[in-house]
Design goal:
With about 350 residues, the chain is of the alpha/beta class. The protein has 3 domains: about 1-160, no CATH class; about 165-225, no CATH class; about 230-338, Leucine-rich Repeat Variant. Helices cover about 50% and strands about 15% of the residues. It contains 14 helices and 11 strands. Strands 1-3-11-4-8-9 form a 6-stranded mixed β-sheet, with helices on one face. The chain has a 3-stranded parallel β-sheet with strand order 2-10-6, with no helix packed on it. It has a two-stranded antiparallel ribbon with strand order 5-7. A hairpin with a 2-residue loop joins strand 8 (about 100-105) and strand 9 (about 110-115). The longest helix has 14 residues, at about 135-150. The chain is elongated and about 80 Å long. The chain starts with a strand and ends with a helix. The model is unreliable at about 1-20 (pLDDT under 50).
Length: about 350
């Protein structure tokens, strides 16, 4: 076991295991790479930060911390001592082969957790860090799942979502199915956001297994984030025929948000076939959310069509009146003054 004082200048060196801590600086680092199980390193890291690396899914963008909002702002780097306004990845973040997990250990529990890419600068502000390097795959996944289940820090789910192992996706599925409330919803989100086709398969399975309710409805949003080519079709199927009216209505909104090009025709079809008035209202609202003025045009056609149910026409007029598009408002005014 060796201890090093790290600064930015030392980061240019290579060939030492402690250099694998990425862009960490201002840290008093204890190198203990003989330990490959984070759970067994907890006692030694008491009162410190425990750090280790995990292999990342192919195509993972390096997580880091950012100044202010996502758009137009530069990378700030992370601090172990303070929270940041924006934390995560952007489309222009560098690719990462590995991610580094920093966890603050107090009283045998994880008090705080950070997940960053190797290229993300991390200021330890003089903190002590126990570095254990690349951990055993199963031991690392067991530890992350345990932290997630304990509710100590939801960034453990983020680390699971980025992990290269297929078993990480299975664990997210298990957490989504076997837990309740926010933890289940977040596991569902990460299945959709990060796990691609396999995540899609898990979401489809969860639709069949979970009972009606808020947690099951969160699958709609996850499908809207999923990269599988089948996700849009499943979301349309949910909006068309799911037995839960609230699930159908929310699915319509996420169709418009996630798949606007396909959604226009689908939403018009749903307006024609849906019988539940509350769901119909949500369908018209979803149409109003279509981008680039497409929604306004569809709403205007619905408002003009005398064969359209009265409730739908009223909702179409209501949402047209909220439009920021002057031409849409003018067309509505002309329609109402005929």
């Amino acid at each position: 076991m060796k201890t090093y004082w790290l600064s930015l200048a030392l980061m240019v060196l290579s060939g030492n295991s402690w250099a694998l801590t990425g862009e960490l600086y201002n840290a008093d680092v204890t190198d203990n790479t003989s330990v490959t199980n984070p759970a067994r390193a907890m006692q030694e890291a008491e009162g410190q930060w425990l750090a280790f690396s995990l292999p990342a899914l192919e195509g993972t963008r390096s997580p880091c911390c950012w100044k202010g909002k996502w758009s137009g702002m530069g990378e700030a780097g992370c601090s172990l001592e303070s929270k940041h306004q924006s934390y995560g990845t952007r489309s222009d973040s560098p690719l990462a082969e590995n991610v580094i997990v920093f966890s603050q250990v107090r009283d045998g529990k994880v008090e705080d957790l950070r997940v960053v890419g190797e290229s993300c600068p991390v200021d330890a502000n003089g903190a002590e860090v126990t570095w254990i390097g690349s951990v055993d795959e199963r031991a690392g996944l067991d530890w992350l799942e345990a932290v997630a289940r304990s509710g100590q820090d939801d960034s453990a789910l983020y680390a699971l979502a980025l992990h290269k192992s297929p078993d990480a996706g299975q664990r997210l599925y298990t957490l989504a199915k076997d837990t309740e409330g926010e933890l289940s919803e977040e596991a569902i989100f990460w299945l959709g956001e990060s796990r691609g086709d396999k995540g899609f398969s898990s979401l489809k399975q969860l639709l069949a297994e979970l009972p009606r309710g808020h947690v099951r409805r969160s699958i709609n949003f996850a499908l809207a984030q999923n990269s599988s080519t089948a996700a849009a079709d499943l979301l349309f199927e949910v909006s068309q025929s799911d037995s839960d009216p609230e699930q159908r209505g929310e699915a319509m909104f996420w169709l418009a948000e996630g798949y606007p090009q396909q959604a226009q025709g689908w939403l018009l079809e749903l307006v024609e076939t849906e019988k539940d008035e509350d769901v119909l209202e949500q369908a018209v609202f979803a149409i109003s959310q279509l981008p680039d003025g497409a929604g306004d045009q569809v709403l205007l056609e619905l408002a003009k069509d005398s064969q359209t149910p009265r409730a739908v026409r009223r909702q179409a007029i209501f949402w047209l009146a909220q439009s920021d598009n002057d031409s849409s408002v003018a067309a509505l005014t002309e329609l109402l003054t005929r």
